[in-house]
């Protein structure tokens, strides 16, 4: 991590004067203004799409977590967005980390985080990864099948194991139960096998699915975890860890927290000796990142020019204009394909101006990514000003979760870079958290 520069307005925008107001809106504008300047000098980077990552937003989410779930320690799911500044901030704020691979474990450990703050929460791991986790001092890991137990017995016999149970994931955008989670009926057999192999099972985890839109499912999940705890006692273990997974949606967070708190109170009335953790990903970062993309091309849809030249042009309700932007589903918008998201573009700047009159005439439009593949469609139909032209900028909110981390460079397009801001509410806390982290000597 020592190669990361510290975050100051000056080094985030080396080519711009120091920012007076640090809010992410200002950074979006400045990013675009910077592009205009580069364009005037015919610089190739002028049109490049970019993210604005608002670290104060991440901090705000952490405050929300602490206010609603003070007794549940968050282990941020690194896979969701392994941005180095996000990880550094969360490390400074004292969260734990849910890692899916050796790569993520190394990234977190390089920040100076103690291995006890990591859970290797992938129930199906390569033996070499299990062994490596052991060497790195990462002991906490999940399993949901007997083969995993044999692997762990060989490669990291002192691991602290967490049995991942299957719960109802039907109320989530991304169901995970088809791939992971031991049905309760299989748990006694797995625990017996773990005992036979002399392994230490310390608790239970579940995941209700990512992007959970009905947080009442946490109630049943905690109930099942209770049953699994009792199975642990039957098998001769004394469980001390409950991991309530991820799935937290920004808009439903307070509701989810309340279902969880109530369920824990009913099913774990005596919480002494039980540590409760969670693995939130999306909740922490989704809102914190916005994307600015440049309109690089514009054309009429094909239907207006019939392929059979003799036929009359078909009347259709298809979009009247197709806009092509410089990030797409092979890049940041992979979230449309993998994470079942919908993109909602809005105009950031038009004809060099940031003021778009509400009286602008609108056209039904579609928005496409830059590659030569026709699956690369960001938005099939949306209302955009008819005066929108090549060179104008579109904005997209909520682009922090499962976006850049899964982006490819298909067709040779580079990944969109991040401009950071610590500007919104909590800016000074963010800066001092990062500074404190540096002072504690974590190699920053
Ligand atoms: N934990 C595990 C094991 C996961 O697989 C995931 C997401 O896939 C998460 C946590 C994070 O979930 P979310 O982003 O919905 O909070």
Automatic annotation (TrEMBL):
EC number: 4.1.1.17
Cofactor: pyridoxal 5'-phosphate
Pfam families with a match to the protein in the record: Orn_Arg_deC_N
Record-annotated active site: 372
Pathway: Amine and polyamine biosynthesis; putrescine biosynthesis via L-ornithine pathway; putrescine from L-ornithine: step 1/1
Top EC class for this record: lyase
PROSITE patterns, per the entry: ODR_DC_2_1
Organism domain of life: Eukaryota
Keywords of this entry: Lyase, Pyridoxal phosphate
UniProt similarity note: Belongs to the Orn/Lys/Arg decarboxylase class-II family.
Subunit field text: Homodimer. Only the dimer is catalytically active, as the active sites are constructed of residues from both monomers.
Protein name: ornithine decarboxylase
Source organism of this protein record: Mycena rosella (Pink bonnet)
């Amino acid at each position: 991590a020592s190669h990361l520069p510290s975050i100051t307005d000056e080094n985030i925008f080396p080519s711009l004067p120091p920012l007076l107001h640090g809010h992410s809106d200002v950074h979006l504008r400045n990013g675009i203004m910077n592009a205009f300047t580069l364009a005037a000098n015919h610089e190739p980077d002028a049109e490049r799409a970019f993210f604005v990552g608002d670290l104060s937003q991440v901090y705000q989410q952490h405050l929300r977590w602490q206010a609603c779930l003070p007794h549940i320690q968050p282990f941020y799911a690194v896979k969701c967005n392994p941005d180095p500044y996000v990880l550094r901030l969360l490390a400074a704020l004292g969260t734990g980390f849910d890692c899916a691979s050796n790569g993520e474990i190394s990234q977190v450990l390089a920040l100076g985080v103690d291995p006890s703050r990591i859970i290797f929460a992938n129930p199906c791991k390569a033996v070499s990864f299990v062994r490596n986790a052991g060497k790195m001092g990462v002991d906490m890991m999940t399993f949901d099948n007997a083969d995993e137990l044999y692997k762990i017995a060989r490669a990291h016999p002192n691991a602290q194991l967490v049995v991942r149970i299957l719960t109802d994931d039907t109320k989530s955008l991304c169901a995970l139960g088809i791939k992971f989670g031991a049905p309760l009926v299989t748990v006694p057999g797995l625990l017996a096998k773990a005992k036979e192999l002399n392994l230490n099972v310390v608790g239970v985890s579940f995941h209700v699915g990512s992007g959970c839109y009905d947080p009442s499912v946490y109630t049943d999940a905690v109930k099942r975890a209770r049953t699994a705890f009792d199975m642990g006692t039957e098998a001769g273990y004394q469980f001390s860890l409950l991991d309530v997974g991820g799935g937290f949606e920004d808009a439903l967070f307070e509701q989810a927290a309340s279902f969880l708190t109530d369920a824990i109170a009913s099913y774990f009335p005596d919480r002494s000796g039980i540590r409760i953790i969670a693995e939130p990903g999306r909740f922490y970062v989704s809102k914190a990142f916005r994307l600015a993309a440049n309109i690089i091309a514009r054309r009429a849809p094909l239907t207006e020019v019939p392929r059979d030249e003799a036929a009359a042009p078909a009347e259709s309700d298809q979009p009247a204009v197709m806009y092509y932007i410089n990030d797409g589903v092979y890049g940041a918008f992979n979230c449309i394909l993998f994470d079942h998201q919908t993109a909602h573009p809005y105009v950031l700047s038009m004809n060099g101006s940031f003021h778009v009159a509400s009286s602008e005439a609108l056209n039904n439009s579609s928005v496409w990514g830059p590659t030569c593949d026709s699956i690369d469609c960001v938005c099939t139909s949306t209302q955009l000003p008819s005066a929108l032209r090549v060179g104008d900028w579109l904005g997209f909110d909520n682009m922090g979760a499962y976006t850049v981390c899964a982006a490819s460079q298909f067709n040779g397009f580079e990944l969109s870079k991040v401009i950071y801001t610590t500007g919104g509410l909590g800016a000074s806390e963010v800066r001092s958290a990062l500074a404190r982290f540096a002072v504690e000597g974590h190699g920053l």
